[in-house]
Amino acid sequence: MARVYISSVIGAPAARVWERVRDFNGLPGWHPRIRDSRIEDALPADKVGCIRHFHLQNGDVIREQLLGLSDYDMFCTYGILESPMPIEDYVATLRLTPITDGDRCFIEWSAEFTCAPDVEAEWVSNIGTGVFQTGFDALKRHFVR
After folding, report:
1. Which of 47, 64, 114, 143 is most buried per CB count within 10 Å?
2. Which stretches of the chain drop beneath a pLDDT of 70?
């Protein structure tokens, strides 16, 4: 099983960052690789089990299901249902933790998935750098003081 883990510090209170990222349908508002998104069946975007259907900037379609969401613990967990990537059993978690020294937050994004062994390192890098770190970099720019 492949594992990806990326973490960073954002110079804003965790509660403010959580307001920005908690919306399961809100990726286009903060992640530069996402063109548009909608929640299928008009369900609320914070209902566990809802499915987001979104397009990447290159036109690829991805469908993901919300598996867990906690405002108290500031995390969301989701799984990929459909994707052009050659991966399976993908489950990821985005989590925020307050840093009280300086009123910043620690953000971490992790995922596990299976794929062919000969492409595992490539997909760990693509997801870690191209998806997770790109999202963190965009959030850091948004919260510059």
Report:
1. 64
2. 145
